[in-house]
Amino acid sequence: MADTLLSIQIIPKTPHGEDVIPYVDRAIEVIQQAGIKHRVGPLETTMEGNFEELLAVVKRMNDAMLEMGSPNIISQVKIYHNPSGASIEQLTEKYDG
Question: In which element (H, E) is residue 7 found?
Answer without folding.
Answer: strand 4-12
